[in-house]
Amino acid sequence: MAVYTDVSETDLARFLADYDVGMLLSYKGIAEGVENSNFLVRTETGSFILTLYEKRVDRDDLPFFIGLMEHLASRGLSCPLPVARTDGERLGELAGRPAAVFTFLEGMWTRRPAVAHCRAVGAAMAGMHAAAADFPLRRPNALSVGAWRPLAEACGESADRVEPGLAAEIAGELAALEANWPEDLPGGVIHADLFPDNVFFLGGELSGLIDFYFACNDILAYDLAIALCAWCFEADGAFNITKGRAMIEGYRSVRPLTPGEIAALPMLARGAAMRFLLTRLYDWLNTPEGSFVTKKDPKEYLKKLRFHRGVTSAADYGLSAETETA
Ligand SMILES: Nc1ncnc2c1ncn2[C@@H]1O[C@H](COP(=O)(O)OP(=O)(O)O)[C@@H](O)[C@H]1O
Ligand SMILES: N[C@@H](CCOP(=O)(O)O)C(=O)O
C-alpha cells in the first residue's frame, strides 16, 4: 500500500480550489507504490493524481523531479505532467506534506513482461535520456556506488539472517565494485527505477513512464543495466537473453551505445543488482512487522547479482558479436 497520510474531503477541496480543475467529485487512495501517498482524484474537468511526498523524499529534490517531468513532457515524452496552480506554482502543501497534482496517464503496468515490452522500454528509456539532455537542473545519484558501503554497514551482520554468509558476500562484492566501477562513461539524467511497475502500456503500446522520484544524474548505461535486471529475468531466476537483446536493440534504435558502455555493461549490471539488493535488504531488516508496506524480497536481487558476477561480456545479455563492434 502507499497511503501513509490521510486527507479529508474538506482539506482536499480547499487545496484544489487553488487549481483550475473544477469541483472535487471523488477521490481514493492508491494501494500501489512504496515511497509516497498517491490518490486518484476526479473533478469536474477530469481525473488527476494527487501525490503527497513522504519522509524519504527530500523536499529540496522536489523542484528537480517536478521540473524534470515538465521538461520531458514538453519534449514529447509521455509522462505525468505537473498541473500548475492558478498562481503558477506546482508545489503546495496538504495534510502537512508537500503535495502536487499530476495529469492522469492512461494504461496499466504489465505483470508479465514479454520480449516486445522489453524492446519498447529500451527505446523509451533512450528517448528519455535524449529528451533530458538539455534539462538544466542537476541531482547527484544518492544511491550510486559511494552510497552502497554505508548501506551495507547499516545492515551489518544482520544480513546473515536473510541468508547465512550474506554479509561476507556483500563485502567481497562491494570491494570489486568500488575497485572497478567505470568512470568517464557518457552521463546524463537517468530514471534509475525503470521497473515494470513504472511503465504503462495501453493496447499493447507503451503509453508512458511514471515515478521519477529516483531520477538523477549518473551514467546513462547504468539505467539500461537497472532495466536489464528488472525486466529480463524469469520467475525461476534465469536471465532471458531474448528479452535482453530486445531491450538493448530497442535502446540502440534511439541512442547508440559507445564501445566503452558496452564493455562496462556487466559491471554496471552487477552494481544495479547490488543497489536493489541493499535497499531491499535494509528495508527487510528495518521495516517493522505489521507495517502497511509490502517488503520486497532482497534474495531476488542476490540471485541476479550472482548471475551478473558470472557475466564476462555484453554478449551474455544478447549483444551479438557483430553489433558489439559496430
Ligand atoms: N500520472 C499517473 N497516472 C495514472 N496512475 C498513476 C500516475 N501516477 C501514479 N499512478 C498510480 O499510482 C501508483 C503509485 O505511483 P508511484 O509513482 O509508483 O508511487 P511511489 O513513488 O510511491 O512508488 C502507480 O502504480 C499507478 O497505479
Ligand atoms: N523498484 C524498487 C523499489 C521502489 O519502488 P517504486 O514503487 O518506487 O517503484 C525495488 O523493486 O526494489
What this model shows, in words?
By secondary structure, this protein is α+β, with helices and mostly antiparallel strands. It has two domains: 95 residues, Phosphorylase Kinase, domain 1; 211 residues, Aminoglycoside phosphotransferase (APH), C-terminal lobe (Aminoglycoside 3'-phosphotransferase, Chain: A, domain 2, Alpha-Beta Complex), CATH 3.90.1200.10. It is built from ten helices and nine strands. The strands form three sheets. A five-stranded antiparallel beta sheet has the order 1-2-3-5-4, covered by helices on one side. A two-stranded antiparallel sheet has the order 6-9. A hairpin with a 7-residue loop joins β1 and β2. α3 packs antiparallel against α6, α3 runs parallel beside α7 and α4 packs antiparallel against α5. The longest helix has 28 residues. The protein is globular, with a radius of gyration of 20 Å. The relative contact order is 0.12. The ligand N[C@@H](CCOP(=O)(O)O)C(=O)O binds next to α8.
